[in-house]
């Protein structure tokens, strides 16, 4: 038996820390803090933010100028894979890197395959938004809101929070906000996809990516601040 096996308490603390990061929260001692620095950290820091923004921006710029699918998709995919390789070198979670590499590869293949179209580069993004949106919506419908599960883990409440009707309703509303985020992206981007308006689709994807995500995190904090800051 290895002596470095993490204890259940250590694993719980790691999950709680991950849950806090997901919500854009920084923990200082026993205090939860939400500010510009913690919000930026939840987005991967300046480096992560820039690295995530460069590939779609490169795709948009190159395609707008050249109308060349091969160049725009290839450069964007190469930049994404470089960023993923950097994550692996920096010993970041390999599972996340594998998923990222798979999505980039699928996106490039869809756009460059025979009888494919440049706009098909965006299909994996649609699938991602549909998946996340569906999970959020279903969790509200069955009264197991995802945001409640995250906060409950962070606070060490287990599932006890579900017995508090007011708290359950609040978590339902905040989780619904995230379902609306993913649905709104689809509502705006899918018509552009079917209209074959690739430039507008690229712009919409950029504007409705991190900016909208950060706004939702901010409203989540405003809605749950009193709950998160309450002593467990």
Offer a few descriptive terms.
232 residues; mainly alpha; two-stranded antiparallel ribbon; single chain
Q: How would you describe this protein?
A:
The chain has 232 residues and is mainly alpha-helical. Helix content is 75%, strand content 3%. It contains ten helices and two strands. The protein has a two-stranded antiparallel ribbon. A hairpin with a 2-residue loop joins strand 1 and strand 2. The model has no long low-confidence stretch (mean pLDDT 83).
- Total helices: the number is 10
Number of strands: 2
Proportion of β residues? under 5%
Shape label:
globular
Distance between the termini: 35 Å
Q: Give the helices and strands as they follow along the chain.
A: HEEHHHHHHHHH
The order of strands across the largest sheet is 1-2
Radius of gyration: 20 Å
- Helix and strand content put the structural class at mainly alpha
Give unreliable regions as ranges: none
Helix content: over 70%
The whole-number mean of residue pLDDT values reads: 83
Largest sheet: 2 strands, antiparallel
Helices, strands, pairings?
Blueprint: H1 8-22, E1 26-28, E2 31-33, H2 36-42, H3 45-66, H4 69-89, H5 94-112, H6 123-141, H7 146-155, H8 165-194, H9 198-207, H10 210-229
Antiparallel strand pairs: 1-2
Helix pairs in contact: 1-7, 3-4, 3-9, 4-5, 6-8, 8-9, 8-10
